[in-house]
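Re: that chain you flagged

S.,

Sorry for the slow reply, it's been a week of failed gels. I finally had a moment to sit down with the sequence you sent. For the record, here it is as I used it:
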Amino acid sequence: MTIDKVRSFGEGCACPFNSLTKILLKSLVLGPRELALVDTDAGIEHLGRGVEEGCDAIVVVADPTADALVLARDLKDFSQSHGKRFWLVLNKATSRVVGRVERKASEVGLEVDGVISFDEEVFESCLEGGPLRANTATRDVEAILRKAGLLGSS
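Prediction finished late last night. Pasting the structure tokens below so you have them in one place:
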């Protein structure tokens, strides 16, 4: 299901989409070993509409930029003020920038909980518009899920 996407010129505000998402997430019933991962648009608009009200945690996937870290800090503040767990995952990171971004994150009160490396396979498959292919990014995501206790150790 796609929610929160304006598809046509003049379609209007995304508020109805956000309201529907909020109701859906608050009503969702999951089993003990189930989880729902919701991918929202970048930014904080959805927070202003209360979309995350029914969520247990917020995972911020941030590009390695100063602007992204400032936004992540705002999202962490929101998470803490609403009693939600918070994770920061660095995305599209090269080995040259990981340490620098982690230091910058620390300076603004953040900890990087996981890193997804820049992956040429992802970049090329997105450029081609075909099925998503991933190499190192897949291994990185699996490592993050294992660290969070959401994936077995095998």
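What I noticed first: The mean pLDDT is 87.

Talk soon,
D.
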